[in-house]
Amino acid sequence: MTIDTTEFRAWRVEETDAGFVGRERTLRIADLPDGEVLVRVAHSSLNYKDALSASGNRGVTRQYPHTPGIDAAGEVVASSVDAVTVGRPVIVTGYDLGMNTDGGFGEYIRVPASWCVPMPSGWDSRTAMVYGTAGLTAGLCVRKLLRMGAAPEQGRVAVTGASGAVGSVAVELLAKLGFEVVAISGKADHADQLRQLGATEVMGRDALAEDRKPLLKPEFANAVDTVGGVPLAELLKRIQPGGSVSICGLVAGPQLPTSVFPFILRGINLLGVDSVDIPLAEKAEIWEKLAGPWACPGIEASARDIGRSQLDECLKAFLAGASAGKRVLDHA
Ligand code: NDP
């Protein structure tokens, strides 16, 4: 028996008369796309983009049946490239994984060697997937703020979508770095958890309700925004002169109905963050930090494991804006 005939389980999304349906299927290694490195996936992580792929969003995934999962961590079991050796534990996130390349919701992936980051020492695949793309993105957002000169003494930092996967890591990481963090969240019942992660204050989403004025009293020195849309436009009006806002998400909408005033009258910096198509070395740098000085023990302790049978329910919660904290998919 060659490795190509080896069977494995995957959570496959298929287009049916009843819409897009995800269910467990048995596949063979030969069903995977060609690639240099075959990885046995031990853990994956749930992200908003996986929910979009699972619901048939063609902007994320063009063709079905498809195995979502933009994150994967596990062990290399075959490699045609000297730089990535068999037996090495690796993290694979972003690029095309889980979009149009079968992803981490299957027990195996086959990908280019250039997508594989060596697992930081001291980490296992579960720990890596507690952070996943969300943790990587939060780290990139924070690094951009720091590169723009953000410092705790400048004042409070706001985090929107604070109970979400990216937001919750941003809250804990900024608090750990000494910032006074204001968590902005639509989930009143999540306020205690956000305080436990280090938020000094929790505001409801109505704090960023639409206001016609082009500028408002500056409340925050800097911010991490994970929601986009009107809340981001409102946030920009409330940033102190010279402050920066790292942005990564669009759950509140892809449009940004703002004016030039925050930028030309207060010198606000809008910092775009992409975690997907950036050089591997940039990803590796953030992973090393999260495995070291940027570790977030609160996030690690609060992450919950699920099996493939719970994927459908958990992914739907993302689309309903009801997901909170980190979910790790355990293939065992
Ligand atoms: P989550 O669903 O885990 O978190 C989003 C949070 O936003 C929710 O928990 C909720 O938090 C809040 N929210 C949901 N709906 C709305 C709404 N209509 N208006 C305002 N707030 C809302 O998603 P992730 O944290 O995984 O991702 C957040 C965003 O970042 C997504 O758009 C995702 O696509 C994007 N992303 C981008 C990446 C990049 O590379 N640029 C990488 C990773 C994610 P609360 O209830 O606390 O307000």
From TrEMBL:
Domain of life, per lineage: Bacteria
Domain Enoyl reductase (ER) as annotated: residue spans: 22-329
Matches recorded under SMART domains: PKS_ER
InterPro entries in UniProt: Acrylyl-CoA_reductase_AcuI (IPR014188), ADH-like_C (IPR013149), ADH-like_N (IPR013154), ER (IPR020843), GroES-like_sf (IPR011032), NAD(P)-bd_dom_sf (IPR036291), Zn-ADH-like_protein (IPR051397)
Sample GO molecular function, one term: acryloyl-CoA reductase (NADPH) activity
Pfam families reported for this sequence: ADH_N (PF08240), ADH_zinc_N (PF00107)
Gene3D superfamilies documented for this protein: Medium-chain alcohol dehydrogenases, catalytic domain, NAD(P)-binding Rossmann-like Domain
Family annotation (NCBIfam families): oxido_YhdH
Name of the protein described by the UniProt record: Oxidoreductase
Native source species: Marinobacter lutaoensis
